[in-house]
Amino acid sequence: MRQFDGACHCGNITFQLSWPIPQGAVPVRRCGCSFCRKHGAVYTSHPDARLRASVRDSGELLSYSFATGTARWVGCATCGVMCLVVCTIEGRDYAVVNVNAIPELERGEERVMDFDGEELDERLSRRRGSWIGDYRLEILQP
Fold first, then answer.
1. Structure pTM?
2. Which CATH entry fits the domain spanning 2-139: 3.40.50.10750, 2.170.150.70, 3.40.50.10680, 3.40.50.80?
3. Pairing between strand 92-98 and 72-76?
4. What pLDDT band is residue 141 in, cutting at 50, 70 and 90?
5. Is 95 exposed, middle or buried (0-12, 13-18, 19+ CB in 10 A)?
């Protein structure tokens, strides 16, 4: 597993991404939804990856959902960086990570994704199969 460290701009949110593929560029995708476009987020995930995130000050943690309400964007209220997207499916959290918050990550060719028209069951199934299923968030200070 390759290890990548990431953080929001001010360091309130930090995370470690353990990537299961030993070499090469990490595949990335740009979500076509209006929220991600406005934030310029570019994501990656792999079902065998591991993501550990920690928040220093939970009072400065942002969480935002819209449309189907199945995903929560997680970001920092201090610096405004959206770091992760989390979806809970049958009691288990799955996540994708914003690679813009991982400076040393070598990016593969960026794919633009459009999930408009995707049925809810299809969406959750896609996330279950391609998002990071080994995800934990630790709050360091309430």
1. 0.93
2. 2.170.150.70
3. unpaired
4. confident
5. buried
E strands, the chain, where? 2-7, 13-19, 26-31, 43-44, 50-55, 61-64, 72-76, 82-89, 92-98, 107-113, 134-139
pLDDT in tens, 35-87: 989 999 999 999 999 999 999 999 999 999 998 899 999 999 999 999 999 99
Cβ neighbours of 119 (radius 10 Å): 8
Domain ranges of the chain: 2-139
Is 24 buried (19+), middle (13-18) or exposed (0-12) by CB count in 10 A?
exposed
